[in-house]
Amino acid sequence: MTDPLLPALTDFIFTAEEEAAVQFALSTEKPWKHDAVELEEVKETLIELKKKIRAFHLQRQNSKCCYCRMNLHGGGNFIIDREHIVPKEKFKALTYVISNLSVACKRCNMELKKGDLSFLVDRGSILHTHSNADQYRFIHPNYEKYSLFIEKISYEVNDETYVKYTKLDHPKAHYTYTYFDLRALEVNTFDNGQGITTPDNASTVRERLAEEISALG
């Protein structure tokens, strides 16, 4: 599949030490659990590799959750998850495959997605077709550009907030919006606080917000 993001997936290079640690980890029951006794000898290598993976995918996702586009900039382990798109618990072989990894907020990963597989079109073949975006009902974090399916507008000043997701007419846009309950993240306190009704038209909202920003100097 075409990679629309930067840095490119092919730019991520495992060192020989990292590759050896990954292969050793994959021979154990839980290869991602670096604190496991059986992974003691490669623990430090895996910890540093996970930091490297997180930094790489934060750069690719512009420090945003790959599913809801929440800002993750400056967030620590309590905010940011290294996301396995196809769950590692179900498909161990994909645990360290860089195209099966991304970054997500805790809400999308731990509360909503968890170990679910319903978003896969054909789970029986996913080990061989995991790099095919057509195998996923939601927007694939690595092989599809989020903004080509859903536009998120977010604006915040002090206690006033505006968040709106505008879906394009595509099945993946609608599925992603529903699967990750993006409606629950939409907020309109900014205009409500001023007693103004915000139009749904995205371009009009952008113009209005630009005017507000300009007015703030």
From TrEMBL:
Residues 52-110 form the HNH nuclease domain. InterPro entries: HNH (IPR002711), HNH_nuc (IPR003615). Pfam families: HNH. The keyword Nuclease applies. CDD domains: HNHc. Keywords: Endonuclease, Hydrolase, Nuclease. It comes from the Bacteria. One of its GO terms (molecular function) is endonuclease activity. This is HNH endonuclease. It comes from Pseudomonas lutea.
